[in-house]
Amino acid sequence: MTEPVSDALLKLLGEWEGFDVERVETEAEGDDVFGAPAPRLVLMLRAKAGAPKRCSQCGAIVEKIHDVSERRVRDLPLGEWDTWLVFPRARLQCPRCGPTVEAVPWLDRYQRMTTRLAEKIARLAQVLPIKQVAAWFGVGWDTVKQIDQRALAQRLGAAEDHLDGLRRIAIDEFAICRGHQYATVVLDVDRKRVVWIARGRDQEALRGFLTALGPTRCAAVDAVAVDMWKPYAAELRVHYPQAALVYDLFHIVAKYALDVIDRVRVDETNRLAAAAGQGKVREARRVIKGARWLLLRNKANLKTRGERVRLRDLLRANRALFIVYVLKDDLKRLWQYRSPVAALRFWKAWRRRALRSRIPALRKFTAMLERHLDGILSHCRYPINSGVLEGCNNKIKALKRVAYGIATMPTSSSRFARRFPEFPDDPIRIAHKCPI
Ligand SMILES: [Zn+2]
């Protein structure tokens, strides 16, 4: 016996396990994303006769039904139709778990929609802006945002229970999708794992994490390592009044290279160029020009004799460059102290030398560090930094490799060098494929 066409078709389109389609209704609806009327299809489902009900917590078959209520959820559109399902969902009295609801395998756990619709939304949100995905499916912006967030966390192995017992965390950002997008990552420093990831690198990206964490778990956090230049600080102060903000060496030295060394190099080159006309000056200019990477490398890494000679010429050619180069190496020592008193003493000595230099960019940078001194000195008590990323799971490593891959493209190679001074000439080139 063959089935009626309509039944076979519904089975093909539906497969709502445990349920049959009882009847089909239509509803007039508002406009769709193109302004055309969007008709609604409402499928009324009923529980399959004799199908056992399972506890959604433990999966055991439960006989005792407490009551049944009607649920209405979204499904994938069928043809032109926005499709809704109306079905009875039983509340059970599980002998093991107490009062629970019945397991519905095709129902998304958190959203009022089917799993397959949530999956489709998550897939589209990888390549389209949230606003467009929301408009296309006629669902709320917040819903798409949540689904995307959850899918992202799943792909990177950040589970919900990872949010329990956080004491020391680090927050950082990464370029993804060839630099078109950024993601904010929160790491559990003690357990060396990713606990949160969200698209974007603004306060809003962090707010989702803070909301999910909640006030009680927020209050247990002792220290947060963060990039001093990111807009996170204000947000963090509100949620973690008790926690120490720790500004790490990595971001500060990278910023020093950008704001001080680059600035001085440009200024000095211009100064020499202005006095051009003599061969010696032109020679000095040539030495300074293009030698930036020599300044950024640690002395110990300068292997060849040629490199050493070039650096010597360069430093001789210019006093200001020499000062900012030496002070950069010295500044790193600030992060070696474990005693705040000793660190403060070191800082005062460093500051004196920096201010005496009379180099405007260096003085400005020093004043800025002074304003953030609390966060720099708290590194003594909480020696954490984004270096913990190195010890983190493989997925974050994959993420970092993508960041390297992006940065090795010609347009942003200097940015790469600044951000990853420890990898000046051996970047890992990988296929430009977005992992998340
Ligand atoms: Zn149960």
Automatic annotation (TrEMBL):
Positions of transmembrane segments: none
Transposase IS204/IS1001/IS1096/IS1165 zinc-finger domain boundaries: 52-97
Domain Transposase IS204/IS1001/IS1096/IS1165 helix-turn-helix per the UniProt entry, residue ranges: 102-151
InterPro entries hit by this protein: Transpos_ISL3 (IPR047951), Transposase_DDE (IPR002560), Transposase_HTH (IPR032877), Transposase_Znf (IPR029261)
Domain called Transposase IS204/IS1001/IS1096/IS1165 DDE: residue spans: 169-408
NCBIfam families linked: transpos_ISL3
Name under which the protein is recorded: ISL3 family transposase
Source organism of this protein record: Gemmatimonas groenlandica
